[in-house]
Amino acid sequence: MKKLALALSAVAAISLPVSAQGDAEAGKTKSALCAACHGVDGNSMIDMYPKIAGQHAAYTEKQLHDFKDAMASGGAKGRMDPIMGGMVAALTDQDMADLAAYYATQTQSEAPAADVPELGEKLYKGGDMSRGITACIACHGPSGLGMELAGFPMVSGQHVNYIKIQLNKFRDGTRNNDLNGMMSDVSKKLSDADIEALAVYISTMNQ
């Protein structure tokens, strides 16, 4: 909670480092190699890979840098992923900025219809103070659109399986590139049932 309060109090002053001005048209051309996993427009048809269409450019750019940092440091820094590490190894800062700019201009596809789980909605909107679980809405907003200046990503409409994978990675410590460790702190308190319910609820938020 203290970490969250500190981060939110500084939202207005936070500015994510951007190494280059992204060119969406250039990014479209460069995105050909990304299409196999993420789709031609950033709407992945494979549910273990994220939809990146409409994602905040600054967030996407940061993730690309984190993947590259992890490969260069053997996982000591950044976000380790063997597939993405290999994909970004040859990318320049300008390439990353261009790709992020392109995907930010795309429109996210609507998620398949699903029954909205009461537990997922409850945790997202109100958390569970008895277990020290902060509401997701605090960082990702009432519609799941996140806050770009603060570095909080859009999560609404994302694949259920991808959300589950990432929450589990935050929970077991295999992903730790989140701001001030906030996602790790929250995820460690989530049960498997909590993660399932949240993933389904979040996936329905763009409908």
TrEMBL record:
Residues 1-20 form the signal peptide. Residues 22-107, 115-206 form the Cytochrome c domain. It holds the Pfam family Cytochrom_C. Gene3D superfamilies: Cytochrome c-like domain (1.10.760.10). Its main location: periplasm. It is found in: Periplasm. SUPFAM superfamilies: Cytochrome c. Keywords: Electron transport, Heme, Iron, Metal-binding, Periplasm, Signal, Transport. It comes from the Bacteria. PROSITE patterns: CYTC (PS51007). The keyword Transcription does not apply. The keyword Ribonucleoprotein does not apply. This is C-type cytochrome. It comes from Shewanella submarina. The lineage of its organism: Bacteria, Pseudomonadati, Pseudomonadota, Gammaproteobacteria, Alteromonadales.
